[in-house]
């Protein structure tokens, strides 16, 4: 298979990622309830690892270069630490890993001029960029997947909303429930 991540081709319609096993914990772990990540004091801690960007998303990112680069003070070429790796587990059949900035230990796409937030989410929410500009993993996190299995990534960051203490007897939706909309958009879940 030949794959390119220059962004010259259109993102087109991308097949959903197939899931055949959902870990029980996805249904029991508290989800990103209330205002979710935005209503949390976690300082976007999960962005300290960077992320894998699927090919379908890479194409959109490179099309929006002029909008992204000023938000992150970097050229797109410097926002990745790997080249393209073929892998059918990712939308479009390949992915690249983002770089992590040594200055603030945040993913290269974390907003530069604001204490919190992601440039890619920002462009979707405020500049009408297609939602595909946000990597699949960042749309469902802290859920993740591997070879047909959906599970909770671990360890959860200390201040993650999913770990927030709730009052006695207060029931909040599970991760599977709070992430349901994104899961429906990106995954085909058929448990065996
Ligand atoms: S792409 Fe955005 S949300 Fe995902 S790890 Fe990077 S900064 Fe965080
Ligand atoms: S997933 Fe958890 S750690 Fe990451 S931004 Fe949301 S609340 Fe914070």
List keywords for this structure.
about 190 residues; alpha/beta; 2 domains; three-stranded mixed β-sheet; three-stranded antiparallel β-sheet; 10 strands; about 15% strand; globular; binds iron/sulfur cluster
Number of strands: 10
Tell me the helix content: 10-25%
Based on CA atoms alone, the radius of gyration comes out at: 17 Å
Strand order, sheet with most strands: 2-9-8
Quaternary: single chain
Q: What would your notes on this structure say?
A:
This protein has helices at residues 25-28, 55-63, 65-72, 119-126, 136-140, 175-178, 180-186, and strands at 17-19, 21-22, 52-54, 85-86, 94-97, 100-101, 106-107, 143-146, 149-152, 187-189. It is an alpha/beta fold. The chain folds into 2 domains: 16-42 and 135-192, no CATH class; 52-132, no CATH class. The strands form 4 sheets. Strands 2-9-8 form a 3-stranded mixed sheet, with no helix packed on it. Strands 3-5-4 form a 3-stranded antiparallel sheet. The model is unreliable at 1-11 (pLDDT under 50).
């Amino acid at each position: 298979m030949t794959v390119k991540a220059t962004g010259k081709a259109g993102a087109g319609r991308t097949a959903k990622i197939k899931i055949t096993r959902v870990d029980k914990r996805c249904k029991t772990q508290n989800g990103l309830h209330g205002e979710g990540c935005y209503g949390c004091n976690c300082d976007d801690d999960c962005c300290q690892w960077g992320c894998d960007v699927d090919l379908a998303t890479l194409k959109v990112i490179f099309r929006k270069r002029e909008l992204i680069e000023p938000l992150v003070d970097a050229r797109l070429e410097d926002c990745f630490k790997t080249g393209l790796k073929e892998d059918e587990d990712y939308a479009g059949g390949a992915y690249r890993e983002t770089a992590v900035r040594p200055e603030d230990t945040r993913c290269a796409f974390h907003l530069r001029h604001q204490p919190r937030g992601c440039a890619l989410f920002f462009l979707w929410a405020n500049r009408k960029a297609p939602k595909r500009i946000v990597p699949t993993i960042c749309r469902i996190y802290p859920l993740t997947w591997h070879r047909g299995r959906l599970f909770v990534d671990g360890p959860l960051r200390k201040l993650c909303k999913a770990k927030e203490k709730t009052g006695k007897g207060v029931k909040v939706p599970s991760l599977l429930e709070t992430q349901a909309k994104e899961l429906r958009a990106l995954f085909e879940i058929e448990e065996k």
